[in-house]
Design a protein that fits this description.
With 488 residues, the protein is of the alpha/beta class. 52% of the residues lie in helices and 13% in strands. It has 21 helices and ten strands. It has a five-stranded parallel β-sheet, sandwiched between helices. Strands 7-8-6-9-10 form a five-stranded parallel β-sheet, sandwiched between helices. Pfam families: PPK2.
Length: 488
């Protein structure tokens, strides 16, 4: 879930100086209105990797906000007094009044994270602890506390460099603790993902903050806080801002933006690799091991990215009796009368079979989000619902492969025109395709958020350049074969 946040996200110092006054003005305006209304309070929780600059980030935030209405609460091991009370007592005690803002370090997540990493918390205990956190945060949200949770991330090499720099300046005990967590970085990332998946709710969202560049880090934090307060002021409900920062032109690179669109494969190599992979897929799908499992394939991507062509190369070596392709379009009246996942539940494959979705449940956070067919609350909630849905599929024995096929805007235009000029392809191009193209940037934002929030260890996204159809088709087949070999 941290893929795009670990991409190089930078803000030139000159651009930051130009952006800073706008940031400060809008943030302060939102805070002052909140102070005047006194109808909700804000809790800003900071967590994530040691060395990411959480303290520096909050220090700068203090300089931008009205500090008299801002308090910082830092928690470490509970005091003797705290031990005589229930675990959440000290957090309840320090909650800000309406109109006020509290920044929280070492929150209720720290004991759970630490004990899980070091094996002091088993699966049942971990789930019980997360359930208690969800109950606590939902209660706060119901009492009009706006909860904003930030997870700071850094590339491994950068974290190591920063910890060495900190070590040179200080021999404090916390430095030893920082190195200890660095050594457990992989486990911490795994536990962190589990925590975020279980506790990122519309009423208490997590935001992942790329922290390699201090200016980008702090601007991203300030803008997210600003947008969240503005939304809360606008309608009185706790809402998450799932779009990237928009003030002053600060942009977030997503995993989709990082796809290398130059990847190609010549026809001869394509034919050889395609045939070999199709033969392998045919053999694997005919095994007893596969008959006990089953597979779900999800294809999403830019319009005209070649989803249909890739699907045809996948089904060619399969026995027609074991697969079904489901082209997904707008829901029918019957489907609209039921929860949006209903139409996908009823299309799931039995064991030993394959269900292929040409577009899928992800339309909820793509088309329905961008076109306004789903409310802000509905598509925001859908990330968690989709992750839970896919976890159920996997727990039942199904293998889930998800593909995002990407092309450039120029290549899409070329393919659109080719479809219009080719009689047997004209049915593929519609007025909706041209309308959607006008919202290219909005769809790019939605796709980036989708990848960030639903690419998990158990159901990762595979991002493929489809600028070259040969390349894309081989990569799809290779991924499916690799996953089957890993799972069976």
């Amino acid at each position: 879930m941290f893929a795009s946040a670990e991409l190089p996200q930078k803000l030139d110092k000159k651009d930051f100086r130009e952006l800073e006054p706008k940031l400060r003005e809008r943030l302060l305006t939102a805070q002052l209105e909140m102070i005047e209304r006194k109808n909700f309070s804000v809790v800003i929780l900071v967590d994530g990797l040691d060395g990411a600059g959480k303290g520096e980030s909050i220090a700068r935030l203090y300089g931008w906000m009205e500090a008299r209405h801002l308090v910082c609460n830092a928690y470490s091991e509970p005091t003797e007094e705290a031990r005589l009370h229930p675990p959440f007592w000290r957090y309840w005690r320090d909650l800000p009044a309406k109109g006020e803002t509290a920044v929280v370090f070492g929150s209720w997540y720290q004991p759970i994270l630490r004990d899980r990493i070091y094996g002091k918390l088993d699966d049942d205990g971990f789930q019980r602890a997360l359930h208690q956190v969800r109950q606590f945060e939902e209660m706060l949200a119901n009492e009009n506390v706006l909860i904003l949770k930030f997870w700071y991330v850094l590339p491994r090499d950068e974290q190591k460099k920063r910890l060495k720099a900190i070590e040179k300046k200080s021999a404090a005990r916390h430095v030893l603790a920082d190195w200890s967590t660095y050594k457990n970085r992989d486990k911490a990332a795994e536990v962190g993902e589990d925590i975020i998946l279980a506790t990122s709710k519309g009423y208490a969202p997590w935001f992942v903050i790329p922290s390699e560049d201090p200016e980008y880090r702090d601007a991203s934090l300030a803008q997210t806080i600003t947008q969240s307060i503005e939304l809360k002021l606008a309608d009185g409900e706790p809402r998450e801002v799932a779009a990237p920062p928009v003030i002053g032109g600060l942009e977030k690179r997503s995993a989709v933006d990082a796809i290398d669109l130059t990847a190609k494969l010549d026809k001869k190599d394509y034919e050889e690799r395609r045939q070999a992979l199709q033969d392998k897929l045919s053999r694997i799908s005919d095994t007893k091991a596969f008959a006990k499992r089953g597979m779900v394939l999800v294809f999403q991507g830019n319009d005209a990215a070649g989803k249909g062509g890739a699907i045809r190369r996948v089904i060619r070596p399969l026995d027609p009796r074991i697969y079904q392709v489901h082209p997904i379009s707008a829901p029918s009246d019957e489907e609209k009368a039921r929860p949006y996942l209903w139409r996908f539940w009823r299309r799931l494959p039995r064991r030993g079979h394959v269900a292929i979705f040409d577009r899928s449940w992800y339309e909820r956070v793509l088309v329905e989000r961008v076109e306004g067919f789903a409310t802000h609350e509905e598509w925001l909630r859908a990330y968690d619902e989709i992750n839970s849905f896919e976890a159920e599929l996997i727990e039942s024995g199904l293998i889930v492969c998800k593909f995002w096929l990407a092309i450039s805007a120029d290549e899409q235009l070329r393919r659109f025109k080719a479809r219009e000029e080719t009689a047997y392809k004209q049915h593929k191009i519609t007025d909706d395709d041209w309308r959607n193209r006008l919202k290219w940037d909005q769809y790019a934002v939605a796709a980036g958020d989708m990848i960030d929030r639903t690419s998990t260890r158990i159901a990762p996204w595979t991002l493929i350049s489809s600028e070259s159809k040969h390349w894309a088709r081989v990569q799809v087949l290779q991924t499916i074969c690799d996953r089957l070999e890993e799972e069976l």
